[in-house]
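User: Can you help me understand a structure? I only have the sequence.
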Amino acid sequence: MGLQIMVAFLPTFLITIYKFCFTLKAAAWAQHKLQAWYFWFQLFFVILITAVGQDVAGFTEALFTDPFALFGVMADTMPYATHYYMNYLVLQWMSNSMVLTRYIPLSKFKMFSQIFEEKEAKEMAEPEDQDYYGLGSRAAQWVTLAIIGVVYGTMSPPVTVLSLITFALMRLYYGYLLVYAETKKPDLGGVFWVMMLKHLFIGLLVYTILMTGVYYRRGANSGPMLVAMPSIFYVWWSMHRFDTAFAWETLPFGELTEHSTLSAKKRVIEGEYMQPEMIKS
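Assistant: Let's start by predicting it. Here is the structure, written out as tokens:
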């Protein structure tokens, strides 16, 4: 519960920093920055909290001075936290069910309706808090939940089942909220979705490092570790390919010229047309 509360308040501080200390092209870009940095916070203090422990500086120093020690640290600490993350996933059922009730906009509406007309009160109560319920914050939270299922699902299969139930409930809740209840929000043309996929690659990288360390610590010999280790390089190559091989922000010049050439062809009109009203009866 304490972790849930701490994670809930952080986006407010981050979005305040972006709005007052950065020059942004649009307000939606603040949500994009929030998504990026909020994810890294959750990666270290939600997914890797057992490996980081209480000494963040010591963990960072060990990571840069002896990177290979990361395999042992993660393998010695993270497998014992599976029950904790099972409880954390179940907690999401309650927190997302509360979002379904829209208790914050409802409370604001009830308060403003005592002073203003109902229509004005409704406009003042919308939209919901964009610090925690905005596109950036939600994207970072949902990817974190997906990574929990990926990272800890192999070590404890019930985590996979709980992750499936969690996302099934979220699909039900947000499938209604986004379409029928909440107001439309400005998008950036797929930026949030692409960033979520990049973050998922980072989660896969954590997963491959963890499983390699687990096989190193618990395997009868080095065989399982040697089988798992190449997956680290494959995920790293896939991350690089995802950034370089796909053109999603701009249309390739070849396709642009091809479509412009096709559209330049003039349609031949046969016969002669005359407005009926111009013909004397």
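Now, to help you interpret it: The mean pLDDT is 83. The radius of gyration is 26 Å. Let me know which part you'd like to focus on.
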